[in-house]
Amino acid sequence: MEADNQSAGLRAPVPDEPRRKRVLILGGGFAGMYAALHLERRLGRRDDAEVTLVSRDNYFLFTPMLHEVAASDLNASAIVMSLRKLLPHLSFVEGDLTGLDLHAKTATVAHGGLDGHSHTLAYDSVVLAMGSETNFFGKAGPRDHSLTMKTLGDALLLRNCLIDRLEEADADRMTMGAPDHVVTFVVVGGGFAGVETAGAINDFIHGALPFYPNIQHANVRVMLVHGGKEVLPELGEELGAYTRRKLIEHGVEVRTGIRVQDVTEAGVVLPDGTLVPTKTVVWAAGVTPPALLATLPCEKDRGRIKVNERMEVPGFPGVWALGDCASVPDLTNGGRPCPPTAQHALRQGQVVARNVCAALKGRPGKAFRYRMLGQLAAIGRRAGVARILGLKFSGRFAWFLWRTLYLAKLPRLETKVRVAMDWALDLLFRKDVVQLIGPRELDQIVLPSFPLNSRTQVRQVQGLQPQSQH
C-alpha cells in the first residue's frame, strides 16, 4: 500500500506544523522602520515567523529634510523611500491604526476614507512606534488656520502656499497694490522644526523675488515667534543666541518670550492683543502623543506609554513601545525619558528588533543605552549651528556638517545620490517657482473660508480623519 501511494505521487500525512509567530510593527517612521529593517534581516527569510509593518504611508519619510522640500532645495521624491523596496521580505499594510486591543492582541487598520473598510490583524508580539502629532494645545484657531510641518504633504502644501502668495502679491501690485500681509509669513515655535522652517521660508521667498518684479524685499516679512527665552533651547543659550542673531541678520523678525494667544483668518493674535496680519501661519510649537494612546490600559507618562529599560510595556508580555509615543528611560542620563529625536528612535528600533528576536527564543532582552552624540540645525543662507560631543559649531562649517551627517544617515545608495544631485543643482541654479498644485486644485481640496488651511481640514474635505504621525 505504501508503494502504491508513492507511485501515485501521494505523501504520507505529517503532523501539523507549528503556527508562525506573528510580529506586528505599528508605525513607519524612524522607530518603526528601523525596527522593521533589523527584523527583516533576522526573521525575514525564516518560516517560523511573519513580520508585518503597518504604516499610514507606503514610504519612509526622512523628516529632518522636510524644510528643504518646502524651500525647493530638494525634490519631494528625494527624501522618501518605498517601504516595500526597503523591506522586500516583510509583509506590509498601508492604512490608519484605528483600534488596538492589548488583551485580545489585535489591531484594527482602516484605509480608503469614508467609503473604505477595516482589517483586524492578530499578533503574538507587537511593536508600538506610532510617533506623534502636532500639538495645538487644545486651541481651535491654530488647528483650523495654520499649516504644519509633519508630513511630506505639509511640506508640499507650504511650498505651494509660498508661491501662491507671491503670485497673488505680484499681480495685485500691478493693479491696486497688494497689502503687505499677503507676503507676511509667521512661524510659531522656536525649536528645530520652527527655526529650520523659518530659515527655509526666508531663503525661498527672497531667492524667488527676482521672478516677481512687482514685489520688493522690503515688502516681505518673515516672523518667528517663540515662547521661550531663546530659540533652539536644546542647544543651549549660547547657540540659541547666535541663531537668533543670524536669523535677524538674514531678515527674519524673531520674537522670543511670547506665546501666541490665537490664530484667526486675519492673522496671529499676540498676548497683548496685537494682531499680526497674515494669510500664512506655520504651527511648529511642539508635538503630542497620538490620541489613540489614551485608550490603552497601560501606564502613561505625560501621555506617552511608559516602558522599562528594554522598552517592554509592563503588564503586557510581547508588547514593546519606542520612539515619540513612548517614555523610554535614558540610562545614561539618570533614567530621565529619552528625548524624542530621530537618532534615539532609530537606535531604539535596532534594540527592539534584537529584543523581539530574543523573546521569540524565550530569552531576556537587553536594556537600551545610548548617549546622544549631538544635535544640528540648518538656519538658512547656508549657515547652521551644532553641538557635537560637547563641542559647539556655527556658521557655514556647521551647515556643511549638517548636510554631510544627514546625507550619511539616509537609507539606500540611490537616495543619497538623489539628494546629493539636488543639492548640487541648488548651488548652481535659482529657486524653482513652479506650483505643483494649482489654485483650482487647491480650491477643490481646501475649505473656502481660508485659502490654504491646515492638514486637518484638508483631510476632512477629502473624507479622511486626522491621523497621528506614524
Structural summary, described in words:
By secondary structure, this protein is α/β, with parallel strands linked by helices. A five-stranded parallel beta sheet has the order 5-2-1-9-21, covered by helices on one side. Strand 7 and strand 8 form a beta hairpin. Helix 2 runs parallel beside helix 9. It starts with a helix and ends in a 9-residue tail after the last helix. Belongs to the NADH dehydrogenase family. It holds the Pfam family NDH2_C. Keywords: FAD, Flavoprotein, NAD, Oxidoreductase, Transit peptide. Its EC number is 1.6.5.9.
Poorly predicted runs of 5 or more residues: 1-15, 445-470
Number of domains: 2
Percent of residues in helical segments? 25-40%
Beta-strand share of residues: 15-25%
Average of per-residue pLDDT values: 88
Number of strands: 25
Strands of the widest sheet, in order across it, are 5-2-1-9-21
Give the CA-CA distance, first to last residue. Answer: 58 Å
Shape: globular
By DSSP (H or I, 4+ residues per run), the number of helices equals 13
Q: Roughly how many Å is the radius of gyration?
A: 24 Å
CATH fold annotation of the largest domain: FAD/NAD(P)-binding domain
- Helix/strand-derived category reads alpha/beta
Quick one: biggest sheet? 5 strands, parallel
The CATH architecture of the largest domain comes to: 3-Layer(bba) Sandwich
CATH class of the largest domain: Alpha Beta
